[in-house]
Fold these 4 entries.
Entry 1:
Amino acid sequence: MIEAACHCGAARLTAPAAPTEVSECNCSICRRLGARWAYYSPRDVTLPDGRRTEPYVWGDRMLAFHRCRTCGVVTHWQSLDGTRDRMAINARLVDGLDWDHIRIRPFDGANTWRYLDED
Ligand SMILES: [Zn+2]
């Protein structure tokens, strides 16, 4: 099990295992956040108390990016349409990950919506 925690510790998530790969996305929000996203099924993740985070939603309103209400660190995103069995945790919030053995994949969310490390 891994735990992701914001800077102040108010917002914590747990997931069953460390990621083997993460995405670094170049879309307008992800490049600003500098997040490394690790994907999980929402069923496998324990979310923080909803009062601890604040969602940010924009554009097509497909995703909510959650940040800690106290320290402002972005902890995760969730799908809002309820059809996708996927959410993401900001893996930068997990202490002790072995980054030498986690694949960091560049994702072109700004344009082609594809990974840039595959043809
Ligand atoms: Zn915090």
Note: The radius of gyration is 14 Å.
Entry 2:
Amino acid sequence: MQVLFQVVRQNANSEPHIQTYSLDVEPGNTILDCLNQIKWEQDGTLAFRKNCRNTICGSCGMRINGRSALACKENVGSELARLQQISAANPDSGKSLEDIPTITIAPMGNMPVIKDLVVDMKSFWDNLDAVDPYVSTQSRHIPEREFLQTPEERDRLNQTGNCILCGACYSECNARQVNPDFVGPHALAKAYRMVADSRDDQTEARIENYGTGTQGVWGCTRCYFCNSVCPMEVAPMDQIGKIKQEVLDRQDDQTNRSVRHRKVLIDLVKDGGWIDERRFGLKVVGNSFRDLRGLSSLGPLGFRMIAKGKFPLGFEPSEGAAQVRSLINAVQQAEANQTESSTN
Ligand code: SF4
Ligand code: SF4
Ligand code: FES
């Protein structure tokens, strides 16, 4: 079948442009097969990374039809089926199913382009390094032979251990895009792997470190993109959630604003079924009148909201408040039971 490949090409510090290649391919051909065919038969100047061709090395991350993925994992047939679904759901998109099928390929995001589909992953590696991704046994007696773990302890490492450091999650991370301090989903998934490792002796220091400021877990906006693109089902956002829970189990709402934000949000939703925004600002930013500087920082925003008629003067509890409360109570009880059974 005839398929067009629109490839975003670029040299460092130059404007990107699109180059279109026409290929005769089979539905089962991977996107990497197609890029190889372009490079070997049509244009040897096209640059992209690859190695294992088998979803192992993580080298071939790129944006395929708008989302980051591995070129050796996705194939022509599944990509075209995906495009058909998108165009069926958006009949006004201007795309006709009669057109020659077209697959777009672009470099990953959140990292500068070196050439074509090859990006500079320095910040990705530096941020991984920032979470100290090595098991520490410094203060422990090192056994003469291996460090034994129970099967249950080892099982806790399986999901995060599947990460092949491909960069797809980092490429799509919204928090990373606006906050240059945020270390990114790959690093925090690895951070949870360290927290969960029974051999590591730095758990408390790690949890404090990962829960400080917005470079760690509190910088995540919970957009879910990392979970949706990860080719290895590492679910970085879920791992971030587990670290957050470890932080919340240890710190009260006076420790920092992020912890307060989380606890106040749950308290207010439990109270009224949704958030009373007036109390939210006072409790989180103003720390219930303890933080006068924080409180005064709300002034300009408050005045602007009043001027635009957007300041909520009253608060009506939601009609489903009792139901919401019982749901939260049930989840909290289930979590408490889970914690109790895992410590017994
Ligand atoms: S968490 Fe998933 S998407 Fe992110 S680097 Fe690891 S394998 Fe790739
Ligand atoms: S869920 Fe958090 S870590 Fe994952 S992509 Fe969104 S902001 Fe980034
Ligand atoms: S070439 Fe190794 S993961 Fe794609």
Note: The first strand starts at residue 2 and ends at 9.
Entry 3:
Amino acid sequence: MRVNCYNTRPMPTITIDGKPLDFEQGQSILEVANDSGIAIPHYCYHPSLSVVASCRICLAEVWAPNPRNDNKLEPMPKLLPTCQTPAGDGQVVYTSSPKATANQKAVMEFLLTNHPIDCPVCDQAGECDLQDYAYEYGRGERRCDTEKITQSKKDVGDKVMLYGDRCIMCTRCVRFTQEITGTSELYINGRGAVEEIDVFPGEGLNNELSGNVVDICPVGAFLDKDFMFQQRVWFLNKVPSVDPLTASGDNIGIEHTEGKIYRIKPRENQQINQFWITDEVRYGWKFVHDENRVTEMCEDAELIAADKLQQASKIALLVSPMISCEDAWCLGQLVRSLDEKAIIGIGPVKVVGDDKTFPSGFTVRAEKAPNARGVQRALGEVLSYEEWKQQLSNADTVVVTGSYPEAWDTPEIGEDKTLVLIDTLQNALTERADIFLPAATWAEKAGTFENCNNVLQTFERAIQPLGDSQPEGQIAMNLQALVDDMEATIFNAATIRRRMADAGVAGMREVELPKNTNRVETDMPLSEV
Ligand code: SF4
Ligand code: FES
């Protein structure tokens, strides 16, 4: 028996499917089960939303001690919704007793009465609760001989489509717009068998977090227009990453296959982004595969760049707030080894409006750069962009890093200077550059970003760098090797973090790798044709 840390009272205990479990007062039976890895089917319950107990699939048989009968265990007269019933000391719960199983089968049969069962053409197939529970708890045949009630597909927002036929009326999406965004675009229209989810006339579901309804919809009713019919989810690999566009540090997963990103999903982090991401982050990865990407490097470009840097009498380095701490540090090491008093500045940090906080506490960040603080942590004292531009006239060789997801406020570099440009997309400086070295985007490398609250978080590489592009850290290491006439080593973010920590950069030793590195896998066997 465990004892609560703050007093000596024993923790309350509940037994679920024969397993005795400690719990905190206030937890529901479903929450205790979830915490212990006991699967109880559920649709309408979501940990961040109010409890409505409407879908009825989580019902279980509950026995509880009766204080009026010498605390003898007695069964509750009906099955109870585990999502809504508080766990009680001494309760015994059966989630797969004959009564509970009969209810699960009945709920599934009821939900599938009007469902089109169009899994072969549904994007949600492979990650659909309805599909999974139909396998596990369903009956396998339709006994109802009435015509199915059909509903039309609705274009309800710029980013999402609603396939009303597939909806099981869990109301998660409606509660999301009421409780998380406070925008209430969605509502239930009609009653009974013909009720449907809809938007108010003239109002689209277009708030900054609209894409999250696709994630919380337990079936394929809400679909992401951008991902629609693009890829089957069981072919996707999922790599943990961090928002590369803003200072939020929101936790994301990059889902990709065969070198191509297909979608970005949020990863749960209650301290940072709860369960959500903005549409800006969800759809902001397109620059990785943009046709304006420059991924080719001229022959001997690195050799020429190393030569120019060695000959320089004064070097200026502009480090972009879009690149990782490790990349920034490697560039700083290279430039300072050649010119101790190099002019080092941070690139422009775009700010759009003000931070916007939703009723749930989720905040959309106005600062549109993921690592302004991390770059300064890695490099120590650096000049602001404006200061750097003012001192630029003193330099004869300039190294500029960009890696912005769109056209950026590039500096004027006089023709009298040698410009080494390390960037991803074509921009005003690409033509001007004397040497262009293609950089890898965040999805093509590992590293660390520091968010607006000074939280350092690592991200992993999702896809191979495109063409000749490389992480800025690798480019710096290659140039250093050429300068020192040594063999180049492979850039490894973890190794660089250790070196940074050894060099006294605070916080780098404590940075943890992201949790949740599972591959998205289907449990359906694939057959070779
Ligand atoms: S659209 Fe999805 S989330 Fe909304 S009520 Fe229907 S099933 Fe639930
Ligand atoms: S999850 Fe409990 S009733 Fe829906």
Note: The chain has a mean pLDDT of 94.
Entry 4:
Amino acid sequence: MSDYITTTIEALAKQAYDGWPGHVGEERACELRAFIPDRLEHYSQHLGIDKEQLLRAWEEGRRVNTINHYQQSRYPNVNDVHVFKTLDEFKARFSSGKFRCPACSKETSNPYECNSGHIDSNGEACNWKSYGFLGTLGKGVEVIVLDDFIKTGAIHSIFSPVELEDA
Ligand SMILES: [Zn+2]
């Protein structure tokens, strides 16, 4: 591991410990020392990005304290994530620009917010959001755009592109 990685992990472990000294802090520091290298390995392998570059990007994008940030939920396995180099590559692959809303099952041109215009039984237009509490109801896909991921660490949870339905 590079010096940057070793130093950063130690600094984060210390922060975790200082946030809750004693036994709990020790456990948290210990978890971080295992969790971060494990995630770096996984992401670096699947995305073909250098580990140091990844950790720098994660730290730059971190807005909350160490313990709240480095969680499995934020760094899920990416085996099933669709990976694209650029947004243009994503748009070329899913060129119809149409996505399937998991709630009303209609097509929407916005991959995050349903704009199908479907009116439900309460007379209200569907405005389901992929980032809402119930997400994509297990029917969406996750997308990484490397250009953006390297800066923000963002994994986009979106409605499923209609192109995937024919496959
Ligand atoms: Zn909808």
Note: Residues 101, 103-104, 106, 114, 116, 118, 126, 128 surround zinc ion (CB under 6 Å).
